[in-house]
Every structure is written in structure tokens, then in C-alpha cells.
Design goal:
The protein is an alpha/beta fold and about 500 residues long. It has two domains: about 290 residues, nicotinate phosphoribosyltransferase; about 100 residues, TIM Barrel (Alpha-Beta Barrel). The chain has 15 helices and 21 strands. Strand 19 and strand 20 form a beta hairpin. Helix 9 runs parallel beside helix 10. The radius of gyration is 26 Å and the shape is globular. The relative contact order is 0.15.
Amino acid sequence: MNDPSSGWFRREGSALLTDFYQLTMMAGQWREGRTGQRVSFDYFFRALPPHTGFAVTAGLGVFLDFLENLRFTDSDIAYLRSLGVFGEDFLGYLGGFTPQCTVRAMPEGTLAFPFEPIVQVEGNILEAQLLETALLNFMNYSTLIATKAARVCQAAEGEPVMEFGLRRAHGPDGGVLGARAACIGGCSSTSNVLAGKVYGVPVAGTHAHSWVMSFPSELEAFRAFARQYPYRCILLVDTYDPVGSGIPNAIRVFRELREQGVNARPAIRLDSGDLAKLSKTAHRMMAEAGLDNPLIVASNDLDEDLIADLKRQGAKINAWGVGTHLITAFDCPALGGVYKLTAIMNDNGAWQPRMKLTSNADKATDPGRKQIVRCLDADGRPLGDVLALEDEPLPGAGTLCGRRQKNPHLPASIEGVARSEPLLRTVFESGRRTAPPEGYKGARDRAQTEMAALPDEHKRLRNPEIYRVLLSERLGALKEHMMTHPELA
């Protein structure tokens, strides 16, 4: 496995992965003499993808790769100078820029819910503003794909799901980062070799129809593939006629392998047609030929709903290749994550809460520097989360009382709490990570553990139960007060 700290975005020019207005705002703050102004921003999303009851956070590790290596190169400065917008004093500041912010975040693979601060950035206002676009880019896409992968893997009921989407991904970056995120969400492997090299995710694949078509006959093609990969032999049986020739020829080749002393699991792939019917036929034909426990892989525009439907039909498929609908999050092409100012430090070093007020109540933000507390029952199952101000003690056991997130004047509660745990950890400080990168596997393990603990009603593929996210009494009272006194926001 490659070093998990090897980042796809450790490359020249990555500091310009930002929106132009971030740089103009930075230059304006510079000219206003505000480089010492400390602020705190939250990254969160307001809504989950349709029919989804949870999100699997992903992208933090890649963002930290980016952040650790964030520098403006000479060519970056030359390009910005050519725009004729920025003064030499500001360009000199950028030339010596190194990140010094503090980042707190949920570890990758943590389950998250609307309005929860997944990442918090504290630093001077120029630096915090610069990081907005890159953070949103890394976190929104990766979290979206990891969440989609978790739903697909949930539908597969523990059977392996291979991510096959590179050729349909939104460019090379989407293909590589999407493969990493898909494996965090639960996929067993990816077809993307570069993702395997860069991030250490397992790679897998079979062969294409062109392999079969390039030989004089289907049987010769299967025999050739079996000669080359006797212990990794998955035969694609639907180039011509799966029942009339593909499956019988595959059976013949697997029996020949056994006669040669190769005791590998017989395996085929179906990529078209009625997958339920064909898989049952293939399983029966292989069993009658003495090929027990065959691996039957299905592909062809699969998603969680189709996989669940094939399961209900009793399909004999036991491995899944999912491409377009996974790597593009086909039914929800973007996660609407946002990055909002929540606190600003005054001249006395005290944090003053800030809040976005708008005529759309759904877009009102939660003020102040916060912690997320997950409330668990006696068996370790999550009951709900509480957003609390950072200096509040952890909630106790029993019934926890708070306020509703969107309507902080209304009470809310979580009952049956046995214990609680904070979710945000400091992950970056003084220019470097606070701990070595854990790689995709640690995030995947965390996601699997948390998915197993999440009650089933939140994991339904349609109309899941809404997970409770409350404001603490103090935070709720603060938000209500600021909503009724907008001059304080």
C-alpha cells in the first residue's frame, strides 16, 4: 500500500484552487489592515440527498494534504500580477504565506446530519477566507460519493461492491477522489489504478467484451484469459449469447482448470439483459456442472434501488460492479455544503458570536463556536446529536432537554441517553497535522462501525426517519436572542 499521506493535490499551483473573489476579499482585508483579525468558520450542509437519512463524511484527509502544502509559487504570483488587480505589497504577502490556522473536524467516516459543523476553521480572516472554496470542493464531493457508496453497499447486504466509474467520472480528479470516497463509504475495491497507487485502495477488474471479440471464438478467448489469470479468472459471458454460449463456455473452461489442478472459485460477470433471470440460470447451470459456490458479478447501470430490487427477486448475484450512478451520484449531483462565519474575536481576545439572518429561515446559521455531542443509548446506538457552545460541559444521562434547530424558541429533547461523546477534534494546528494521516482504511472502518450502530429506521432507502439534531439550551437561547435582535448578528 502506498503511503497514506501521499496527496493527489500535492502539486504546483494548487493554491489557486479558489474563487477569484476570495483573493479580492483577501486583498481588501490586507489593505484595511485586518490581517490580525481572528475569525471562526463552520462547514456544514443544510440538506441530505433525497431519500437519504445520513451522510458519511469524506474528503478531510485530502483537504489536509492540500492545506499542509499550501504555498503560492513564483508562477502563481506571476499570474496574479498579470491580472493587474493586486498590489505588490499584497503579492509579497502571498509569496510568504504558510497556513497557521487551527482546524477542528469530525474524523473521516463519521456519520453527519444537516446543520452540524463537520469542519471548523479558526485563523486570521485572510487565511480563513482563502480556504473556503477548496474546503467546499474537497468535502462536498467526497462526502456525497461516500454517502452514495454507503447506500449502495447497504443494498448489497454485505456483498462486495466494486467501484467501476472512472470512465464516467467528472474528470480525472473526480475519478480519483471519487474512488477513494467510495471505498470510505464501503466499496471493497475500485477499477481505478491511479487511485490504488495514490491512496492504497484495492483495485479489481475482469475483462471487456473486446477481449472476447478479439479472439476467433468465445471459448478460445475464455481459455486464453484463464491461462493468464487462473486464480483471478472472472469471465464476461454476455458478449454474444449468455445462455446459449457464454455460460456453457465458461463452465467448460472452469472444469478444465480443475482438471489441471487449479482449484479457483468459478466466477462470471453479467453486464446486460435480465440480471435476475440470467443470474438464476447461470447459478443453476454451474451447480448442475459441479461448480458449487460460483461468484456471479453483475454490472450495467446499477444503483442502490436496482440492487435492492434484484435482491427482492431472489437474484443469485453475490458481487456488484457499480459505475456511473455511484461516481456521479446520479440522482443528486451536488451536496449543498456551505462555509459560514460564526464568531469573530474582539480586541479583548473574547469570541463574539456571528449569525447569518435572512428572510429564508432555513438559511439562518447557528451562532458561535460549537461542539457536536453524540448521544448514545446503553448499547452504543446513537439517539441524536446536540449542538452546544464549545465551553459547555458534556450532557449527562437520562433525558436531555434543548431547543429545536430551526425554531429555537421551541423545546426539544432526547430520551434514554446513557452516555455522550464529542465529535470534533483538532486535526491541524500551527502549519501541520496534529496526528499522522490514517489513510482511507481507518475512515472506512469508522464508517462501517457507525453504520452498523445506526438504527435501521435512519437507513431506509426511501423515507428514512429524520435523525434528531438539537441545540443545547444555551445555544438555543443565544440563537433566539440574536434572531429577535438582528443588530447583534
